[in-house]
Structure formats: C-alpha cells, structure tokens
Amino acid sequence: MSLGSKIAWDDTVLPFQLDRSDVRGRAVRLDGVLDQILAQHDYPPAIERLVAEAALLTALIGPAIKLRWKLSLQIRGDGAARLVATDYYAPETEGAPGRIRAYASFDPERVHPDGDAFSQVGHGYFAILIDQGKGTTPYSGLTPIAGSSLADCAQTYFAQSEQLPTRFALTFGKEPDGWRAGGVMLQKMPGVPPRQNDEGGSGDNGLLSADDLLADANELESWSRANALLETVREDELIGPEIQPTQMLVRLFDEEVPRVFDPLSVQFGCTCSEERVRHSLSIYSQKDLAHMTTDQGIVTADCQFCGAHYEFDPTTLGFEAEEARRAGN
User: Are 63 and 100 in contact (CB under 8 A)?
Assistant: First the structure.
C-alpha cells in the first residue's frame, strides 16, 4: 500500500514496519467506536478515561492475533475502579472489521473527582488473555499494576511476559462532537539468534563473535532511536483529523523507511445473546434461581458491555432445565 493513499482513518488500525530499524508497529484512531462504548454507561470522567485508554490499548494489541481469536484485557485493582475489562474479536473473514467492547466496574463513593484516572485503580494486576476457540487452551499472562498509566502496565507486561520491548504513545479526550483517541505502538521484532557451533556455543569457544556483538549493538541503537523519535509525536498527529496516520509516520520515521500494510477497520461489537445468557445461568440450581427471581416472577440479566436487558422464566433455567432441554434434543 502506498504511503500516499487516502482512506477514512477514523476507527482504523494501520500496521506498519520500520525497515531500517527492525521495528514493527500499529497506529490507531478511534472515535465512533469509543463513543458507542462509553455511551452504554454514565461513568464519572476519571472512569471514562480509564475505559478509553483500555479500549485504545486493546485496538493496538488486538490485531496481532489471527482470525477468529479473541483477546481480552483485564485491569483489576483495590481502588475505586475494581475492574476494567475489554474484548477484541478478530475479523471472522478477510476484510471484515475487528470488534471491540469494554466496560468498568467501580465504586462511585470512592471515585476521587479531582484525581487522575490511573490513581483510581490502586494496587492490582494488568492481564492479557487470548482465547483461540474451541479445542484450545486459553492463554493468560499478568503483571502487577505499575507506572503511571495503563500504557506503562502494558509495556511492562510485554517486557516481562513476552520478552518483547514495546512502547506506546497515546492521547484521548472528549470533544464537543464526541470522543477522539489515537495512539502508536512500537515493538522490537524478535532478532535472529546467534549461529550455533557444533558444541552449542556461539562462534569460537562458545563466545559471541565480534559480528554478533556489533549486530546486538546496532539493534539496541535502532530501538533506542525509534523510541526517541516516537517521543516527538504531537497530539494532532495522533488524533487528526487534518493529519493522516501515513503523514505522521513519514514525519516521525522518514529515515527509518516506514512501510505500511493494509488498514483494518474496527467497530463496536458485543457477542451477548439470549442463548448465551441462558447458558451462563444453567449452572444454578432452582434454589439459587429462587433468590434471583423478582417479585414479578422473572429472572433478569443485563449485559455490562452493551446494556442489553434479558428476562427469563426461572422454570426454564438452571442445570435441571438444561439437562431436560438436551434430553429433548
């Protein structure tokens, strides 16, 4: 794809590579998606900002997974923000959009109106979970809450859990016409391991050769240079709309030879359904369901992500009803 191509960049992820630096990355812009995510709830401003940052990180990290995979972020803490959860659903077919959803669980009485968003989390952990579908074992990795932002937590996660140096630059905020957010993710591409000799060492006598040492030094220098260039990015370059992501990449990394790939569109998407909710309630006994039944004789459930409301006859729920339904089939 040419750097001069023009497309609609809102709610879009643009993968790229810096050919002279062995660095890959993604640039993302969100507007309508973020509006839809945050419109589902009446969050205090600090919680809104936490959800916005988590959704932006999810849009940057999620497209690394393959078709039909799901990637989730979970931020759990002992502060006012008890949980921030996001899901990224990869496109089910080539050319289809990815889907994002997010929500937060928080204690309204503990939210500090004058405090920054990250301070609402307190102590806890930042986790990434990957579900590859039926027949596979979900992957999860976590790192303690650290730094001064969720982006700092994500950088620590990749450094410790994946051994992949990673850097984020994010900006987001609510404007009169809605939310606008943008970000860049840089990641050092895994290097080629040193050539092994017959004894399993690297070079003569199992030591790194001068060429190996020089290659390592060059890789470190190129990664440091890419990080330094990213620090010069401006807010108007991250969120636009006058400046295109391709223009931003050329301005930042011209000497690193940026090469872009086909962009991916993202949209708000929730997977909840009556069938899924019914299945989730199948683990309860009729005694448990009796405690959930309202005075009107129904069991209700609300989706935290999209706000959908479901109502059920309690006699059709529970593991006994589920077993009877399966036997009937």
Answer: no
Long-range contacts at 69-74 (CB < 8 A, ≥ 24 apart):
69/130, 69/131, 69/132, 69/133, 70/130, 70/131, 71/128, 71/129, 71/130, 71/131, 72/128, 72/129, 72/130, 72/131, 73/126, 73/127, 73/128, 73/129, 74/126, 74/127, 74/129
Q: CB-based burial of residue 205 (10 Å sphere; 0-12 exposed, 13-18 middle, 19+ buried)?
A: exposed
Worst-scoring range by mean pLDDT, 25-29, 54-58, 115-119, 298-302?
298-302
Nearest to 100 by CA among 150, 51, 162, 37: 37
Using 50, 70 and 90 to split pLDDT, how confident is the model at 147? Answer: very high
Confidence at residue 323, expressed as pLDDT on a 0 to 100 scale? 52
| Cβ-contact 33, 276 below 8 angstroms | no
Nearest CA to 31 among 241, 261, 269?
A: 241
Are 76 and 83 a contacting pair, CB within 8 Å?
yes
Tell me if 46 sits within 8 A of 75, measured CB to CB: no
The band of 216, judged by pLDDT with boundaries at 50, 70 and 90, is: low
Please list the residues that pair with 18 across neighbouring strands. 23, 258
CB contact at 8 A, 292 and 36: no
Beta bridge partners of residue 202, listed in sequence order = 196
Which residue type, as a one-letter code, is found at position 132? Q
| Domain annotation for the chain: domains and CATH numbers | 12-190+213-268 (3.55.30.10), 274-328 (3.90.1280)
Tokens representing 318 are 């529970």
pLDDT tens sequence across 183-199:
999 999 876 443 344 44
